[in-house]
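ok trying again, last paste got cut off:
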Amino acid sequence: MEPGNRLGDMEITDPKAMRALAHPVRLAILERLQRHGPATATQLSPHVGATPSVTSWHLRHLAGFGLVGDAEGGTDRRERRWEAMARGFRFERPDDEDGAAAARALSWEMFARAAALPERWATETEPGLEPAWRRLGGLANTRVAVSAEELAAIHDAIEAVLAPYVTRDAAEQPPGSRGVRLLRYVLPEADDESGPSA
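nice, full thing came through this time. structure:
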């Protein structure tokens, strides 16, 4: 796998696909399929905030961009099982105005979906964790002054560390493994905010 995509994410380059995925129900559908595996529209419906028929319509829309497809073993068209076509996705902000607007819309929707995760974790999940897991959870807020090339190298180094854990089969996970969500916000400051002081 090339260094730019060690995690095996689907590369989204089409602005139309970015706009399609920027819809809250579609993004919720894709995230649910990536996290929990194949499901029908009826099974997805209570988790994505839409009726089964609306969920089915959104699934077909995502399939048109190759983001989801038919799951193996799904033979009954009335109970069509869908699966995500990759465990994750990534996109870059194109230079053209339409592409940049589509990438911005998808970014905003992703930020909105992730905004409540830390608070929900802190109030619902963290209190019930064992001490060893509780110590490892939480957040870091680190500011660095770097060039664009150095930031790209940081991205690559983080993915190099994560890749073996992201891409390994479930059978290779050691006993006691559990899902851990790593949220990575990379927020370059405006030029007048940058400087050597932290």
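cool. The CA atoms of residues 47 and 67 lie 18 Å apart. The chain has two domains: 1-115, 116-198.
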